[in-house]
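lol ok so funny story. i was supposed to be doing the assay writeup but got distracted and ended up predicting the structure for this chain instead. priorities right. anyway since i did it might as well share w the group, maybe its usefull for someone
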Amino acid sequence: MTLLLPFLRKLIILLSTTASLVLSGCGNGFFPEMDDKELPHYKLAATEQAWVTPYQVGTEWRFRNAAGYVRRYQVKGFSDRVLPGIPTNSFSVQYYQQEAGARLERVDSAFYQRPDGYKHAATFTISAAADFQNQPLPLTARLEWGLAKLPLPIAEVNSRQTLPTGVLLLPEAVFAGRTHQNVLVYPNLQAQPGEKLEAWMVTSIYYTKELGVVRFVEANGTVWDRE
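and the output, tada:
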C-alpha cells in the first residue's frame, strides 16, 4: 500500500490537470472556444441610429391640447446592448446583434405616481438586421404608447419602399404652428381583441425620426400636439 501512494498522487494530479485543460479550452487542443471577435457583429447603420436621437435620457416631450392643458413625458431609461444570436437548430452563439431601447414616463404633476401609469408609459426598441446564412433577420423597430403597439417601418422609410398597410407617410405636416417633415401616421389604431375602447386610449399617432411622437389623438377626440 505504501508503494502505491506516490503513483496515486501522480495519477490524481494528471487527471486534475487534464480536466482543467478540457474545461478551459484555451487553445490547447481540448475543445477550443470560438473567440467572440471571430463571430459576425451586426450593428445599426448611421441612418438607422439616427432614429434613436429622440430618446436621450432626460429628454422631455411636452404636449398641449386645445384647452391649454400640458402633458409632459420624460425619457427615464435608455439601453444600447449587444444580444447573442442563436439560430434555429443551433446550440451555441453564432453572431451578435445590436439593440437599442428606451422608456418614457409621464411626469406632469397632475399624473405623477398614479397607479394606472402604465396607460401612459411608452417604450421604444430597435434591433439591427442580421444577415446570417440562410436565416436572415430584418431590421425591426417598435413603439409602444400606452396600450398601442406600433411597428416602425424604419427600413422602408430609409430605402423609400412601400410602407406596411395601416401606415401613411406625410412629406410635411403642420401641428400647432410647428412644421414637421416626413411624418409617419397611424390613423386608425384599434383596441385589442376583447378590449373595450375607453376615452383615454390612443386612436391616432404621428411620428418623426427627429422628435418621436409629435401628435396623438385619444378616443374621446382630444388632440395633443408636441410643443
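The chain is about 15% helix and 40% strand. The helical segments are 4-24, 46-49, 154-159.
back to the writeup now i swear
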